[in-house]
C-alpha cells in the first residue's frame, strides 16, 4: 500500500510530506521510502498562522480562513509530491496544523484542534484522506500525543536494554521502551519552540531559527534565569503529559528575560538551548537508557546535539538515521504508518504512552474521487517495523 504522510509541526515552518510503500507479513511491518519533500508555507499563510497561535487571541473568521488556506497548502504538497514521484497513493494521511491543545487545570487533555480542511486534498488528488488523527485518543482519556510513539515502539521495542527515542521539534517528546518494558512517552518541554520564538521576535521576523546553533554557541548561559526556567511546574508533572505553545511562547520568554530591547540575543539563545538540554537530560537519566535516538529539527543543530551527548554520557546519543530513518522524515513516516493501521482496522495509539483508557483506531476518512474502499482488516497488529 502506497501511503503519503504529511505534517506541519508546532514550529509551523512548513509541511513535511513523505510517500512510503508499507506492507505487513507475519506480524512484521515493512516501510520503504519512495520519496520525501518539505514544503514551506506561502508567506501570507505562515504569517496568518503566527498571528493566530497562542497566546495571541484570534476569531472564528481567522480560524475559518486558516482552515481553508492550510488545507490548500497540504493539497498543493500532496499533488506536487505525487507528480514528482509519478505515484498515485492509495491513502493520504494529513495531520494538518495544530493551533490549540486544550489542557485543563487538572492537566487532562480535553480537546485538540488541527486545521487544514481535508476535502481540499481529496478533491485535488482523488485519493482517500485520513485526518483529525489525534482527537479519538483524547476522547478515550489520552493526550492525543505523543502519537509518534507507535513508530518508536515498532522500531525499538525489541531492544534488550532500555532505549529512548527523542523528538526535538517545537516541543521535545520522548518514548522509552525495550524488551519486557511497558513503553512510556510524553512531552518533556520546549525544544526549538522557544528558540525560534526568541530569534524571530528579536529580528522582527527576518530570521525564524538559529542556523546550526551559531548564535547560541556565541553566548553565555545565564544560570540564574536558567534556574528559574527549570522551576516551571510542568516539568514536575507525572507522565503521560503534553504541552505546547499554550504554555511555552514569546511572553513566557519575556517574563524571564525582560523586554526584547534589553536582550543580548546570544545569551538568551544560549540559555534557552541549555534549558532544552537540561530538561531532556533530567528526564532521560531517570530511565537509565543505553542509547538515545534523536529526530526532529533539533537533531540538525550540532550545538544542541553536542551538548546533549556531553550531558548524557555514557548514554550514546545518535540520530534516527542510525536506524535507517532520516531524522527530518520521522513524523511523516509515523503518520503514514498510523494511516496504514487505521485503514486496516488496527489501533495506531499506545495507551501507556498517551494516557488513554484504551488503544483506538485513529482519524476520520474523507473519500477521494470514488466511493470509500478500505482493504481487508489485519487479523493482528504488527509488532515490529523493518525499514526497507
UniProtKB/TrEMBL annotation:
One Gene Ontology molecular-function label: ATP binding
Example of a GO biological process term: peptidoglycan turnover
Pfam families tied to this protein: AnmK
Protein name per UniProt: Unannotated protein
Native species: freshwater metagenome
